[in-house]
Amino acid sequence: MNSFVSCLPLEIMDPSPMEQDPELFHPTGDIIIQVENILFKVHTFLVVPRTQVLRDYLSTIENQPVESHEGSSITNPLHLSGVYVEEFRAFLDVIYDLDSILTQKKRDATYYLAVLRLSNMNLWEPGVDFAIQGINSLDPKELQPYAKIVLGVVHHQDTWVFDGVRRLFVSGPVIPQPDDKEIFKQNPSIDQCSIDWILRDGSTLLTNTITELIHHAPRFPNHDKAAWGTFNCDNHAKCVSAVEDKWKRIAKKLPLQFKAANGQWALSFEVVEHLEKFPFRSMDPRCRAQMFSILNHRAVGFYRSICCAICDKLMTLS
């Protein structure tokens, strides 16, 4: 949804009664802006240089009488469409409190997203940078994974995309659909179908990786002491044989459990937890501990590599 200055009469655009914003209707302001049914009176020397849509509008009325200008009075405000009141408040808040850009005063995700959208819309780079830094400072859980992915692609922030992908797949290959699709409406340049296809490819890759891990016993050398360090046992060949024998049962039982769980096993930790439930009775405890340490690092490494691959593919959409 693009922001533009509407030329429709006010009674057609919005039948709601106009209200002055309690904090951003400045007595000394020289232009009145309407967003939804709220009026803002602001200073052109502060706001116009940071608002592309206002610059474009004012450049078209330079030779017209001032009293005929939209924005010259309460009865003839300049109407901004495609912008929400709370977004515009946040945007003006940053403009009027430029120290916040320097001090990085802590805000919530909604505030930073509003500033990011309007700053990007109005080509105000300091505002974009401020919002990006603010989002980076948030707890990752303050933004939904799909929002992190879409915004990361739009604003070329691969760390956001990676975090969104990692959180989507943290519980297993089956990923949830977005709870709120508003993020796609606000960023029409990003095709939801393209994102869905890439995520499905990632889901398939995760499923295949988990299947491979539980079907095939890990290969451990039975004589290379360097491979085991301080965990060497007295009869390592016996340990290797115990793993190979037990894995025959694992390869039959675990795939059925994985299927019964509808594929919802986390590669990074849950797969190894299921493997640890099987007793390897004739295996030296030191070897067993070393084996699961290796399997755990392997699973975490696979998970991170897959998330990185999905992230790289998503970033090609920008």
UniProtKB/TrEMBL annotation:
Regions crossing the membrane: none
InterPro entries, per the entry: BTB/POZ_dom, SKP1/BTB/POZ_sf
PROSITE patterns tied to this protein: BTB
Domain of life where this protein originates: Eukaryota
Annotated BTB domain residues: 29-104
Protein name: BTB domain-containing protein
